[in-house]
Amino acid sequence: MLGEIEANPEIPVETLRRYAQEKFQLRVKKRLLYKVRSMAKEKLHGGWAEAYELLPRYAEMIKKTNPRSHALITWGASSRDVNPKFRACFFSFAAQVRGFLRGCRPIIGIDGAHLSGFYKGILLSAVGIDGNNKFFVLAYGIVDTESCDSWTYFMRCLMQMFEQEGCNRDEVRETFPRATRRVCCQHLYMNCKNNGFSGSAFHKLFWIAANAYNEYVFGKAMVKINEYNVNATAYLNSCIEQWSRHKFDSTVCCDHNTTNFVESFNACIKPFRDMPVFSLLEAIRSWCMQRVGATFDKAVDMEDGQLTAYALKELEERTAESRLCYATTCGGGEFEIRDGHVNFPIRLATRSCACGKWKICGIPCKHALRVIYDQRMNPHDFISPWFKAAAYKLTYAEHIHPMADPSQWPDFGLPSIQPPTIKRPSGRPAK
């Protein structure tokens, strides 16, 4: 049955039982088939404990096949242990870190996902966004639990990785103390809900405030939230991270106020999260290699000045919306746009509109496009360079190089590490 289990590792035991009865005319107990499926998985992906022995050599092979990549395995040993035990690991390929620094917008989303294998653990990830508004994997690693110490370990590895590539911005020093921090609005809303601030009225007002591109809309929403519940306003004002779009740094050209792009990466690797640690890391490496490689071939064919598919789609949608706006020339490069019953001042020199959307997104809003078309200008000239072919090509200028099978790896003289110490939770395992 190895072929059937390899094709579908989560094949139901009842399906295996029926398969055995139809093909071999045998009635097999379900208890035995559970063991068969477990043995097959171990044969396909290796043993749970043996997988940790390969990690030191795995890190060395990554650095050998992909020069200037960052592969770190951390282990430690107590006085009772003969061999050291695994503690944490961190991986980032040269193509990933260089592509992020050269062509991605300067924003990093971080998140953790629980592993469901025998030894559990948390998979931490750092993800960026490319010019096509697709997530771009920057780094990932495994730690025993999601805590301040484990996140500090992960962020310090990120910091050292950036410094090695010559990035010496103030935000990078001492694990990013001066970097602007955003909080996921979906998580913030769930925190509000847990504190008793819920209902359809609050839900609507919260997302109006979160998605507000200018202070006026944000202020009106907060006034209504204050009328709904004073404590809700106090709780939102106590949030030290940025959560409303009008507060975002305009140089980043990114209006994401949720971590959905990081959650997308977690969803893509979900089928791998119950594998042994080596198979898990190899599956992620292979997935990243295929994704970067496919985009690498597409980016090469792009012409200079060409917009990414995302920017082109946004431009077309906003162009259609701009037809209902009316522009009045004020002189000196200033214009007044009437959209319904509201006027929006625009200044082309500073690329600013009173609605705030242009400055935060990096793509002209419908009001700005009305002026640009009336002045017979090319809207491509007013789109941020992050969404053009030059930056996109730099993001995917390199690819992840392939790597040989473990049977062909040399012996680097590294210690054989043991799996981490685990504490089994009470109750019957869900899996």
UniProtKB/TrEMBL annotation:
Give start and end of each SWIM-type domain. 344-376
Gene Ontology molecular function = zinc ion binding
Q: Which UniProt keywords apply?
A: Metal-binding, Zinc, Zinc-finger
Which InterPro entries does this entry report, sorted A to Z? MULE_transposase_dom, Znf_PMZ, Znf_SWIM
The residue ranges crossing the membrane are none
Q: Pfam families, per this entry?
A: MULE (PF10551), SWIM (PF04434)
Q: Quick check: keyword RNA-binding in the entry?
A: no
Name listed for the protein in its UniProt record? SWIM-type domain-containing protein
Q: What gene does this protein come from? A: LOC110775915
